[in-house]
Every structure is written in C-alpha cells, then in structure tokens.
Amino acid sequence: MKEMTRRQFGKTAAASAALAGLTLPEYSFGQAAVEGRQFPQGFVWGCATAAYQIEGAVKEGGRKPSIWDVFAHTPGKTHDGDTGDIADDSYHLYKEDTRLLKNLGVGGYRMSISWPRIFPDGKGKPNAAGVDHYQRVVDELLANGITPYFTLFHWDLPQALEGGWQSRDTAHAYADYAGYVAHQFSDRVKAFFTTNEFASFTDLGYRTGQFAPGLRLPAGQANQVRHHGILAHGLGVQAIRANAATAQVGVAENPTAFVPVIEDRENIEAARRATREENAPFLTAVLEGKYPDSYLEREGANAPKIEDGDMKAIGSPLDFVGLNVYSPHYVRADGSPQGYAIEPRQASYPHMDSPWIIVGPECMYWAVRNVCDLWHPRAIYITENGCSAEDVVTPAGRVEDTERVMYLRTHLTNLQRAVAEGFPVKGYFVWSLLDNFEWADGYSKRFGIHYVDFRNEKRLPKLSAEWYRAAIARNAVV
Ligand code: PNW
Fold first, then answer.
1. With a 6 A CB cut-off, is 196 part of the ligand 1 pocket?
2. Among residues 233, 386, 409, 414, which is most buried (max CB within 10 A)?
3. Ligand 1 centroid to 179 CA: how many Å?
4. Has 436 been labeled as part of a binding site?
5. Are 71 and 83 in contact (CB under 8 A)?
6. CA–CA distances in Å: residue 51 to residues 85, 87, 90, 324
7. Catalytic option among 55, 197, 277, 278
8. What is the distance in angstroms between the CA of the first residue and the CA of the last residue of the chain?
9. In this structure, are residues 174 and 182 in contact, taking their beta carbons and an 8 Å threshold?
C-alpha cells in the first residue's frame, strides 16, 4: 500500500471528524503533551550573562584592567583580535537588557559582577562608582520583578593582583571582595554564586593557555592554581556568610557530564564513579571537603600543597549547586580497577557551531542525577545551558534559529525528566541572554537568544527567544 503523507492523513482525519459531526479541539495534541512536561510551580526561569562578555565600558566608572583585557589585547590570543572593549555595551544599555528579560517573562537573571569595577586594584580601597553601577542594575531588575542572581567571579581577575591565581593571596583577596559585595548588596540580592567553572579559569588559563592569562604551567604549578581556585570559593562562602546572614550561597560549576551508554545498573554506577573521579580537583573536593585519595596518588609529587584549614573552607556547606551543562561524555562499566571507561567520540558526532558543543541532550538529566546521587545537594540550579549557532538575519529581519530551539527543547525535556523524578532542580538559566564576547572565540560564536549587531549593539529577539517565552508562559517544555 502506498504510504499516506502526513498532510493526507491530517485531511482524512479532519474529514472523518467533520463527517461524524465532531470538531477537533484546537491544540488538542499540544495540550496533552504539555501536561506531561510541566515544571513545578515556582520554578525559576532565567537567563545568564557575564560582565566581561557583555558590559564594554572597560575604562569607565573607575574600572581598571582585568587579565582578560590584557589577554584580548595581546595579538594572536582571540579570534580576529576581538576584545571586550565595547561588547554589548550593557554597561550603558542595562535598561534595555532588562526590558528584554521582562519580555521573556523570566523570574531570574544570573549576571556577574566585575571584580575590577569594585576593587580596581584587586584589593584595598573599594570603588564607589562600581558599586553604584550595580545598584542601578539591581534597582532596574527589581522594579521589573526580576530576581538578580550574582556570580562574583566569572574570570575577569584584576590584572593588578600579582601572580594571579598562582598566588595564594588571590584567594584571600577574592574572599575580601566577595564579603564586601555581599555586605553591600545582600539587603536586595539573595543568591550568590562564588565562582564560575573552576576548570575554565584554572586549567584553560594556566595549563593549556587558551584563556587568560595564557600560561602553560607544568602539572605541579597548575594543580596549585586549581587549589587556589577552590580555596577562593571556600573562603568566599565563609566571607559571604559572615557579611550577609540571610544570603543563599552556591557555586556555578561545569563538571564533566557522564551519560551511561546503556541505562542499566552497571553503567549507571560507572557514570557515577566517573563523575566523582574525573571532577576530583573541583566539584568533588568542594562537595566532600577533601581531595579523593586517588587524585592525590595519581598526582604524586605534583599534588597541591594544602595548608591547615584549607579543606574545611573548601568544603563549606552550600545552599545550592549550580551546574553549567552543554555536552555529554559517554561512559561504560568495564573490569578496570576504577570501574569505568570513557568512550571516545566518533568523528561523525553531531555538534553545534562550537565544535566542543556535542549534542547529547541526555547529559542534562545525567548531570543532575549523578551530582544528586553522589552528594545530595539541597538544591540545584542549571546556571548555564545553550549553544552557538551560525545565526543570520533574514531579509525579513528575523533570526530563525531553529537549531537552537531544538537544542533548548531537547535539553529541557531531559531536565523535566529529572524534575519529574524528584531531583531538587529549582531553576534554569539560558546561556545566553545576548550574543556576546565568546572569550577566545571573540564575536565569531553567537550564543544569544537575542541577536546583537556588533556594529551598533542593536538587539533583536531570535526565534529561540519567542520559543523560550512560550515555554516560560506555560511552565512547560513546548
Ligand atoms: C562557559 N570548553 O564557558 C562560560 O561559563 C561562558 O562564559 C561561556 O560563554 C559559555 O560557557 C559558552 O562557551 C565554557 O571549551 C567555555 O569546554 C569553553 C568550554 C566550556 C565552558
């Protein structure tokens, strides 16, 4: 028999319904689907950005350079020599950005505070103009019913801090800065993320050199940098709590998300083991207050030097854990002592515009589940999820980023699974509100749900913004 096309089938169905005197309820299929894909009441929908990626105005309001200003201005370090000098000019356009957020209907905005605006020299005398700027941003958000979530460190380390993260003093300077910001803002800002993605600002900055400050240190020194990164987080938690009794504190981290190749007991166990082992110097240390012995043994003489009290600070209890989730790693159980093997990725694996964003939406479910099964955090936020796409403005003046919609929809479907199974996921922040300065990739990779014309900083909602708005309005994956 000849196969019926969908269109023919639709016509036939409609015709037989009409014959039987029935009218098909509008959206009948859609509604049934949405009911099963609902998020809980009070779920926080949001967008995320980071200061250096959107603000521009690098010399205004008393700001001094961060390591990213210096790095981006060093020839050969970023795509086409792009810098964050202007970026999205959000320093001036924050009211417009707030309008975009309001149009989406989000409840939360995860933004980062530029350390060199608050302490231009990294420490010492705070800069009132920097504090005032963020007070105005918070005013605007609150006036529009949007809850600010502060990330206190999203990689823009003040250049003036000698030695950067190689110096233990930087962890103490960070804690002073974090405590100061908490003190200034905690009457109106309730949620603080200490740091964003340990591996990105330690390993990529100091081991592989792709990110600022672009160093390639040997393993022992690089491990010490990692230690200073998580120590900063721990001392920061203590400082925030000391300065703001009611503040909610957590970390925003991108642990490698391991997906079991087959969903059975052995492979699920392998994914859990891999999560703990492969994230040993970062999330595991933070949530256990201890480096796993296997990590210390593996690193041997290169293991970090730990001082008294470090691990207690690092393991400070958290109110929530933020997870940045983009891509999966597949893992299987094997007979090895560690009990798992990470699958190599085949060359044909599908990816988004950034080659590292491999598409495997189950990573969203498993990132949540592995972390919850291992460490039972009180709450989880998805602090970032999103993708780059080769967006173009059509002659009709639109950006039809259907592949970003596909990416978001499938990841949210998997997040909804986690929520439905009872994992304590409280919110989700799309990366990103706007196209922006994508670090070493400069302006060549677009992650926004709003398009930005970098010749004039004009914003344009993409199809994905419309889609996100609909999902938020229905509190469901649509
Ligand atoms: C995250 N990688 O960075 C950051 O938190 C954002 O600032 C960034 O814009 C976003 O993801 C998109 O890249 C990452 O190469 C950058 O594995 C690179 C990697 C991971 C995270």
1. yes
2. 233
3. 26
4. no
5. no
6. 11, 10, 9, 17
7. 197
8. 34
9. no
Gyration radius of the chain's alpha carbons: 23
Sequence-ordered alpha helix ranges (H) in 244-264: none
Q: What is the distance between the alpha carbons of residues 104 and 471, in angstroms, rounded to a whole number?
A: 10
Closest C-alpha residue for ligand 1 atom 13 = 438
pLDDT, tens digit, for every residue of 163-181?
999 999 999 999 999 999 9
Q: Is residue 71 helix, strand or coil?
A: helix
Residue 35 designated active-site:
no
Q: Which residues contact 163 (CB under 8 A, 6 or more apart)?
A: 169, 170
User: Is 381 labeled as ligand-binding?
Assistant: no
Q: Is 133 annotated as a binding residue?
A: no
Q: Is 357 in the pocket of ligand 1 (CB under 6 A)?
A: no
Mutate to test the pocket of ligand 1, among 82, 151, 384 (most ligand atoms within 8 A of CB): 384
CA distance 279 to 294: 12
Alpha helices in 244-309 (DSSP H): 265-278, 285-288, 293-299
**278 is an active site residue:** no
* Vertex 92 angle, CA 396 and 74, to 5°: 90
Nearest to 193 by CA among 223, 155, 220: 155
Of 434, 344, 421, the C-alpha closest to 388 is 434
200 in contact with ligand 1, CB cutoff 6 A: yes
* The length of the chain, given as a count of residues: 478
Q: pLDDT by residue (tens digit) across 139-149?
A: 999 999 999 99
Contacts of 360 (CB under 8 A, 6+ apart): 259, 327, 328, 330
Q: Is the pLDDT of residue 6 over 80?
A: no
91 lines ligand 1 (CB under 6 A): no
Does residue 193 line the site of ligand 1, with CB under 6 A? no
So what's the pLDDT on residue 65?
98
Contact 286, 233 (CB under 8 A): yes
Domains of the chain: 32-474 (3.20.20.80)
Q: Residue 9: what pLDDT?
A: 45
**pLDDT averaged over every residue in the chain:** 95
